[in-house]
Amino acid sequence: MNTNVRLKVAYKTPQSLVGEYTRSVGQGGVTLETRRSLPLGTRFTFELHAGGVPRPVEVLGEVVQVEPREAQRFLLTVRYGVGEDRTALDAMLQRIYSAQEHDGLRRFPRLPLHLRAVEAAPFSPTFLVRDISRGGVGLEVQAPALPRHVRVGTPFLLEMDLKEGPLMLHGEVVWTSSVPRKHSETVTPGFGATFGRLRPEMQKRLEALLSLASLPPAPWKARVSFGMDAVTRMP
What GO molecular functions are on record for this protein (predicted)? Predict the structure, then answer.
């Protein structure tokens, strides 16, 4: 039985590759349906390829659960590990940032970051952090409409735990939108926030996140706060 499995996945752009990388690694693993069972401990290497970048990003994994399904199929749970060679990942990030700087549309290049966040308030929806930069963050709201308290000018705080300690990014909401999804009438509410003046240790942790050198423990999660709740929690 082969105990080393290598899978290749292709993406059109480095942006889409890194977006999927952060989403998948943030979940801590992946579930795969296969035609044959594999023993626990089977090692996986996921090769993530993107157009224009010669070397793939490699994500390591290990089978931690096997569940029989109907029609002689199996559901494998693969837990992700972290590869030691960052060369390809750094090249992907550099390609993303260089392209955005060349476009000149934004002051700070953005990192695609698929990170779920919650608010402590009761009955609040789930938020999805879509991208982040040195200057701010963009989020989607998993609800038909924006919460009433999410308005331009509202104080905002994003918190997450990194290996080096908590990352607390404070600022204010600067735009809101409700844009229909492509080829659908479903509306996706969203908003963007700019960061205020961050303390040196928070700036350092933000830079480590933007380079994907320091990541939250899986599964990734974050907290968002607004208004006075954000102000009282700000560092």
Answer: cyclic-di-GMP binding
Q: Is the pLDDT of residue 180 over 70?
A: no
Which pLDDT value is given to residue 59?
A: 84
Residue 13 structure tokens: 């752009």
Q: Residue 103, class by beta-carbon neighbours within 10 Å (0-12 exposed, 13-18 middle, 19+ buried)? A: exposed
Handedness of CA 102, 106, 110, 112 (dihedral sign): negative
Ordered DSSP codes for 46-86: EEEEETTEEEEEEEEEEEEEEEE-STT-EEEEEEEE--S--
Give the per-residue pLDDT at 169: 96
**What is the homologous superfamily of the domain 108-233 according to CATH?**
predicted glycosyltransferase like domains (2.40.10.220)
Ranges in the chain annotated CATH 2.30.130: 5-101
Instruction: Please report the sign of the dihedral spanned by the C-alpha atoms of residue 193, residue 20, residue 206, residue 122.
Output: positive
Residues of the chain with CATH 2.40.10.220: 108-233
Using alpha carbons, select from 223, 176, 194 the residue that is nearest to residue 132: 194
